[in-house]
Design a protein that fits this description.
Layout: H1 4-26, H2 48-68, E1 79-85, H3 92-110, E2 119-126, H4 132-137, E3 146-151, E4 164-170, H5 203-227, E5 228-239, H6 251-268, H7 274-278, H8 289-299, E6 302-309, H9 321-341, H10 346-363, E7 371-378
Parallel strand pairs: 1-2, 1-4, 2-3, 4-5
Antiparallel strand pairs: 5-7, 6-7
Helix pairs in contact: 2-3, 5-8, 6-10, 9-10
Length: about 375
Amino acid sequence: MTTPTIQYAIHRETERNKEMAAENTSKVFEAHPMKGGDGPNSYTKNSILQRASVDAAKELLNKAIAEKLDIESFLPSKSFRIADLGCSTGPNTFMAVGNILEAVESKYRSQGLNSQIPDFQVFFNDHASNDFNMLFQSLPQNRQYHAAGVPGSFYKQVLPNASINFAYSSTAIQWLSRVPTAVADSNSPAWNKGRIHYSNATDEVKRAYETQYSDDMESFLQARAQEIVYGGLIVLTFPGRHSDTPHSDALPNMVLQLLGASLMDLVRKGVVSEEKVDSFNIPVYSMSTKELAAAVERNGCFSIEMVADLLVPRVDDTSSMPQLIASHIRAGMEGILKQQFGEELLDELFNLYREKCEEHISTTNTGKPVNFLVVLRRKED
């Protein structure tokens, strides 16, 4: 028989979950999935840089699982559930999942639990408009796990309570849930006229993006707190900036500034209206680990187990870097650009953009890309 205190706690938890569900339902989540299919401009064909991040994370991922994953707390469960949040279309997600499975199996064996290695189930999550057909058509034939697709924004709960042992997200949480409302409002002090991003904008625009980031991470962590079992881990890798680096000097932001400059060139050529650019903003934020740590502390449901710089090697042939950047940005941004400006200007835009990347890389010090790996553990309430 449950005591009144336990009954009250269960009731309050149920009410809390209902309140969260209602809040998430009322929020607006913008969907900007990567370019689908397997054509020349697709994410599948243009995600080498993200793949390098997966490769660079493997050793740290192994270390995190070996040292921080308490598999005994999951016993005697016969299944181990993994969620890849922001999986896109592959093939990078399959490489990451393979690395996770290998490390978890190694952990079981190292503790003499060979006979208790569980069945693995992997939930591939992304927006409903993600090309899940492409994702599942390219699933590895020799995979050692059961696969399922889970559509929905990861800024809300997408999986059942206490159902996930290990959550992973690679180069995805830099995408905000939406463009901050104020930056597209011509009556707001944060109106971002003539620019498409916050990094070279006014302080009001930067604060609007910072506030949106803070709200989004609160939603992200609260959703994961519902989904992940006690003792479960989250591993996040993401491009960002060191806390002492100005937003305008962060390499991901500099790359987006060049895209904005290319759009303004098309305005001057009469190809696109200035009003179209004024009302267009990219919902991407380069966070620091200090900002993420503050969000984790506010949430209170996770401990930070590891923070590391992710040493992603640069491409040796720098002459190919401008084209590589242009093709990768197109694979990631084509959907949002097409929605705002139409499809007919994309080729001209990215030709201009590649030329600006060539000029930028050859004449200025762009600095090294900054990527982080952060490991969080679900605490008991």
